[in-house]
Design a protein that fits this description.
The chain contains nine helices and three strands. With about 325 residues, it is mainly alpha-helical. It folds into two domains: about 120 residues, 2-Layer Sandwich (Alpha-Beta Plaits); about 200 residues, Up-down Bundle (Alpha-lytic protease prodomain-like), CATH 1.20.1510. A three-stranded mixed β-sheet has the order 1-2-3. Helix 2 packs antiparallel against helix 3 and helix 5 runs antiparallel to helix 6. It is elongated.
Length: about 325
C-alpha cells in the first residue's frame, strides 16, 4: 500500500495506441500501473475512408458547376449567379482543405505531437467558417451597388443554369451525408454547410429569375443575393463558435461537468472529485482527466475501474486520465 500511496495511479485510454500527455497543471504527475484499453463504444468517427470519398465527390461536382455558373453569370449579367460561382470557388477550396485535413488526421502520433494531427480538422473547419463570412461580405457589398441601378438580367438562362447548379449541390450534399459523418465531424459539417450555402444560392437565383421574368423587377437579383448571404453568415457563425470552443478546450456541449462530478463522487469510498477537466481533441474524441480523493483504506483499483466504466457508459468518454489520491498525497492547487 505504501507504493500506491506515494504514486499516482492513472487510467489512460487513447486512440491508435498512442500515449497522451495532456497536462493541466504546473506540477508533475508520477505514473504507476498504466492500463491501456478502449471502451466498448469504439471510435467509429475516425474511419476516414467514407469522409474522404464524400469530400472527393462533392469537390468534383462543385468545381464543374463553379465554371458553369461563372460563365453563365457573365453571359446573363446575373449577380446571383456570379456570387454563387464565387461562393463555389470558395467551397472548392474549402472541400480541398477538408480533404487535406482528413489525410492529416490519419498520420500517426509522434513524441512531440502525442495526439497526432486530429486537431488539423478543427483548424480546417475554423478556416472554412471564416471564409464563409468573407464570401458573404463580398456578396452584400456588390449587391449594395446594384440596389440603386439594377442591371438587366437574362432571367431565363439564369434560371436554367441555377437549376443545374441546384441539382449538383443536392448531389454533393447527398454524397457528404451518405459517405461521411456530417453530424459528428465538424470538419465535414463545415464543408457540408458550404455545399448547402451553394444550394441556397441556386434556389435564390431561381426565385430571382422567376420574379424578374414575371414582373420585370431586376432589383430582385441583389435582394435575393443579400438574403442568401445572411443565411450563409448564420451557418458560418455556428461553425466558428463551435471550433473556437474546441480550440479553447471547452467542455463538450453533450457533457455536463456537474453531473460527471456527482456520478464520480457517488462511488463508494470517494471523498471528492477535483481538478476535473473535460475537453475535445477532435470531432468524436472527447477526453477527461480528474483527481479522486478516496478514503485511506479503500481499494483504489476497484474505485479506479468503477470510475472508468461509469464515465464510458454514462458519458461516452473512453479517453480518461484518473488520478487516485489519499490523505497522504499533497500537491499545489490548480491555477485554472
Amino acid at each position: 500500500m505504501k507504493n500506491k500511496k506515494n504514486n499516482h495511479n492513472h487510467q489512460i485510454e487513447h486512440v491508435d495506441g498512442q500515449h497522451s500527455d495532456h497536462d493541466h497543471s504546473d506540477h508533475n504527475h508520477s505514473h504507476a500501473g498504466h492500463d491501456h484499453s478502449h471502451g466498448p463504444h469504439g471510435h467509429h468517427h475516425f474511419d476516414p475512408s467514407g469522409n474522404k470519398k464524400g469530400l472527393m465527390i462533392a469537390l468534383i461536382i462543385t468545381v464543374g458547376i463553379m465554371f458553369l455558373e461563372f460563365f453563365g453569370g457573365l453571359v446573363t449579367n446575373s449577380l446571383a449567379l456570379l456570387s454563387d460561382s464565387g461562393h463555389m470557388l470558395n467551397d472548392a477550396s474549402s472541400l480541398a482543405l477538408s480533404l487535406v485535413a482528413v489525410w492529416f488526421a490519419t498520420k500517426p502520433a509522434s513524441p512531440n505531437k502525442t495526439y497526432g494531427f486530429h486537431r488539423f480538422e478543427i483548424l480546417a473547419a475554423l478556416l472554412n467558417g471564416v471564409t464563409l463570412f468573407v464570401v458573404a461580405g463580398f456578396i452584400i457589398v456588390e449587391a449594395y451597388g446594384r440596389f440603386f441601378e439594377p442591371p438587366t438580367v437574362a432571367s431565363g438562362s439564369m434560371m436554367l443554369i441555377a437549376c443545374i447548379g441546384l441539382l449538383a449541390n443536392v448531389a454533393s450534399a447527398w454524397s457528404l451525408m451518405r459517405k461521411g459523418d456530417v453530424k459528428n465531424n465538424i470538419n465535414l459539417r463545415s464543408a457540408y454547410l458550404h455545399v448547402l450555402g451553394d444550394a441556397l444560392g441556386s434556389v435564390g437565383a431561381i426565385v430571382a429569375g422567376l420574379v424578374m421574368m414575371i414582373f420585370g423587377w431586376y432589383i430582385a437579383d441583389p435582394i435575393i443575393s443579400v438574403l442568401v448571404a445572411l443565411l450563409i453568415l448564420r451557418g458560418a457563425w455556428g461553425i466558428i463558435k463551435h471550433t473556437v470552443h474546441v480550440l479553447m478546450e471547452g467542455t463538450p456541449i453533450t457533457v455536463n461537468p456537474s453531473e460527471v462530478k456527482a456520478v464520480l463522487e457517488n462511488i463508494e469510498g470517494v471523498i471528492n472529485v477535483h481538478d476535473l477537466h473535460i475537453w475535445t481533441i477532435t470531432s468524436g474524441l472527447d477526453s477527461l482527466s480528474c483527481h479522486l480523493l478516496i478514503k485511506d483504506l479503500e481499494d483504489d483499483q476497484r474505485i479506479l475501474q468503477q470510475a472508468i466504466q461509469l464515465i464510458a457508459e454514462r458519458f461516452k468518454i473512453q479517453h480518461t486520465t484518473i488520478q487516485i489520491e489519499t490523505s497522504v498525497i499533497s500537491h499545489e492547487v490548480m491555477k485554472v
